[in-house]
Design brief:
Elements: H1 2-23, H2 26-31, H3 33-50, H4 71-101, H5 108-130, H6 137-156, H7 162-186, H8 191-198
C-alpha cells in the first residue's frame, strides 16, 4: 500500500513538468492529477456498492471505542504524524530550497524525482525487511536517525554534496511511512480496532 502511494507520487513528480510544458500551463500539469482522484473515488463507491459488508461474519461491524487512554496508540500517532509532517514538508520544499540556495547542480524536477524514487524503494524494501519482524523498534530507530542526520546535514554541512543527505532523508522517511502504517496492526487484534487507532 505504501509503495503504491509513493509510486503514484513518483509518477506525478516525474511527469508534471512535461505535461505542463506540453499544455502550456502549470495549472493543467498539476490539475490533470485530479482525474485520478475522481476516478479512484468513483471506483471506490462502485466497489462498495457491488461488495456490501457481509452479514453474520464474525469480526465485522463491531463497535470499537477510540483508544484515547492507550499510551501506545498515542505514541504510534505521534510517530506517524511527525514522520508524515516531515515527508510532506520535504516534498514541498526540497526542490525550491535547493534551487534558491544553489546547493545542487541537478534541475529541481530531477532532484524531486530522485528523492521520490528513493522514498518509494525504501517503502518496498522496509516492507520486505521488517514485515516479519516481531519487534520494529530497531527499524524505527534506524529510520529516525537516518532522517535526522539527513536533515541536519542539509542544514549545517554545506561543504558536502546534498545528494548524500537527500538520499538519507528519502530512505529514512520512506521506511517510516511503511513502519507507521504497520504499527497499528502490531498492537491490535481486529480490523475494527486497527481502524480505531488510525482515525
Amino acid at each position: 500500500f505504501s509503495t503504491g502511494l509513493s509510486a503514484g507520487a513518483l509518477l506525478a513528480t516525474s511527469s508534471t513538468l512535461a505535461i505542463s510544458n506540453v499544455c502550456g500551463s502549470w495549472r493543467t500539469g498539476a490539475g490533470v492529477w485530479a482525474i485520478l482522484s475522481l476516478s479512484g473515488t468513483l471506483a471506490w463507491l462502485l466497489m462498495a456498492r457491488a461488495h456490501p459488508t457481509p452479514t453474520g461474519v464474525k469480526g465485522t461491524g463491531a463497535s470499537v471505542k477510540l483508544p484515547w487512554r492507550n499510551s501506545k496508540a498515542w505514541l504510534v500517532a505521534l510517530y506517524f504524524g511527525c514522520s508524515q509532517f516531515l515527508s510532506y514538508a520535504v516534498f514541498a520544499w526540497l526542490a525550491p530550497s535547493m534551487l534558491e540556495m544553489q546547493t545542487s547542480t541537478l534541475k529541481p524536477e530531477f532532484l524531486l524525482s530522485g528523492f521520490t524514487l528513493a522514498f518509494t524503494v525504501a517503502n518496498f524494501v522496509m516492507g520486505l525487511v521488517a514485515g516479519s519482524s516481531p519487534d520494529r523498534r530497531a527499524w524505527i530507530l534506524i529510520s529516525t536517525v537516518m532522517t535526522i542526520v539527513g536533515i541536519a546535514g542539509l542544514a549545517f554541512v554545506s561543504s558536502l554534496s546534498p545528494a548524500v543527505f537527500i538520499l538519507l532523508i528519502a530512505v529514512g522517511l520512506g521506511a517510516a511511512l511503511t513502519l507507521g502504517l504497520t504499527l497499528p496492526l502490531d498492537h491490535t487484534s481486529s480490523a475494527e480496532e486497527a481502524n480505531a487507532w488510525t482515525v
